[in-house]
């Protein structure tokens, strides 16, 4: 059956590059949301924990529970909590989320610094802090997400300035209202790589830890990142087919010459995007031509090999499907077997 191989050396290599850049292993938080960007949350969590990572970020409580035993701090970006594990920190995007939280919950407050998507607006910080104090909730962290990390231009710096002001404001309120200064963080992969002398207590790196960066400008050290995941498919069967034979739905592929053609056990139902014949030619990582159309559970290729490597770098598929590596990776079905190598 199809399989995703996870290269532990590459993952370690990427974390080394990031921690060297930020000048500390302690400040490195990794993002494991969405099944660790499709890599497999339990497998990647194991590698991150072995590396010494203490803080991670997941999508929801279900993901947090799978890795609860491995980290000191697990921030849950969305949803609510049914249990109150000491290492789970719920993200608060709006004040009404505080209403049903039990006393002593540890939360992280998300502030809107210009993406205008999620989080508390800066002008409401004081009233939200008052509510947190009243409800005896523990403010463990305050964070923002800069939506301009990939882009050339001044928006990125402008948003960071807003966050610096917010930090000062929160530190002031901490003294005035008598709560402990929370941890502060604001940088994702691209934001981390474009920043020098990071003042935050933590970075939140997702994509770069998996071996990719999608900035519009060149960052030399990013070239050393190595993709962690390779997707393998196994042969279902082989046919010898005459020139002119049609293959697959609607016979989109018509053979130019007599050929051996095999089908392999991954389709769009497994999260590999569907080749319908309108994309440019796609060759697997080991050089075999994929023959559209792909089906829900299989695709055909000009190969007789028992196992082929569909991709070992999601950038190529992202280009073909006019999207970003994030989408190619997160789409991979959690039913595919993951193996750490
Ligand atoms: C997904 C996410 C990140 C990680 O972003 P990358 O670009 O993958 O590094 C960081 N912070 C938050 C809040 C996120 O949702």
UniProtKB/TrEMBL annotation:
Q: In its keyword annotation, does this UniProt entry include rRNA-binding?
A: no
Q: Record's InterPro entries?
A: Ala_racemase, Ala_racemase/Decarboxylase_C, Ala_racemase_C, Ala_racemase_N, Ala_racemase_pyridoxalP-BS, PLP-binding_barrel
- Give the superkingdom in one word: Bacteria
Keywords, sorted A to Z: Isomerase, Pyridoxal phosphate
Q: Which residues carry this modification: N6-(pyridoxal phosphate)lysine?
A: 33
What terms describe the molecular function in GO for this protein? Answer: alanine racemase activity; pyridoxal phosphate binding
Which annotated residues bind substrate? 117, 296
Is Transferase given among the entry's keywords? no
Query: Which GO biological process entries does UniProt record here?
Result: D-alanine biosynthetic process; peptidoglycan biosynthetic process
Q: Which PROSITE patterns match?
A: ALANINE_RACEMASE
Leader sequence segment: none
Q: Which residues form the Alanine racemase C-terminal domain?
A: 228-341
Extract one GO cellular component term from the record: cytosol
* Record Pfam families: Ala_racemase_C, Ala_racemase_N
The record's annotation in Gene3D superfamilies points to: Alanine racemase (3.20.20.10), Lyase, Ornithine Decarboxylase, Chain A, domain 1 (2.40.37.10)
What cofactor does this one take? pyridoxal 5'-phosphate
Name the chain's protein. Alanine racemase
């Amino acid at each position: 059956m199809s399989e995703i191989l996870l290269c532990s050396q590459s993952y370690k290599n990427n974390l080394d590059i990031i921690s060297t850049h930020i000048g500390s292993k302690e400040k490195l938080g990794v993002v494991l949301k969405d099944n660790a960007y499709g890599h497999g949350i339990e497998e990647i969590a194991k590698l991150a924990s072995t590396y010494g990572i203490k803080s991670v970020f997941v999508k929801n409580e279900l993901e947090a529970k799978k890795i609860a035993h491995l980290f000191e701090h697990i921030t849950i970006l969305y949803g609510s909590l049914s249990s109150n594990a000491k290492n789970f920190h719920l993200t608060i995007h709006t004040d009404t989320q505080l209403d049903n939280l039990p006393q002593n919950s540890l939360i992280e407050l998300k502030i809107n610094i210009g993406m205008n998507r999620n989080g508390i607006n800066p002008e409401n910080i004081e009233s939200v802090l008052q509510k947190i104090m009243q409800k005896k909730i523990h403010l463990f962290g305050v964070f923002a997400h800069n939506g301009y990390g990939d882009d050339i231009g001044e928006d990125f710096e402008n948003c960071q300035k807003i966050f610096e002001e917010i930090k000062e404001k929160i530190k002031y309120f901490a003294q005035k209202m008598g709560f402990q200064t929370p941890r502060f963080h604001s940088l994702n992969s691209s934001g981390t790589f474009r920043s020098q002398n990071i003042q935050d207590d933590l970075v939140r790196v997702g994509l770069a830890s998996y071996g990719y960066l999608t900035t519009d400008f060149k960052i030399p050290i990013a070239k050393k990142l190595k993709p962690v995941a390779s997707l393998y498919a196994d042969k279902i069967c082989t046919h010898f087919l005459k020139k002119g034979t049609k293959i697959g739905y609607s016979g989109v592929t018509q053979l130019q010459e007599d050929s051996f053609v095999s089908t392999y056990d991954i389709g769009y139902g497994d999260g590999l995007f569907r080749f319908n014949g309108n994309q440019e030619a796609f060759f697997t990582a080991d050089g075999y031509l994929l023959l559209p159309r792909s089906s829900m559970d299989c695709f055909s290729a000009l190969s007789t090999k028992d196992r082929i490597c569909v991709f070992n770098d999601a950038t190529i598929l992202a280009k073909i499907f006019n999207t970003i590596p994030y989408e190619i990776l997160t789409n991979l079905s959690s039913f595919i077997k993951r193996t750490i190598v």
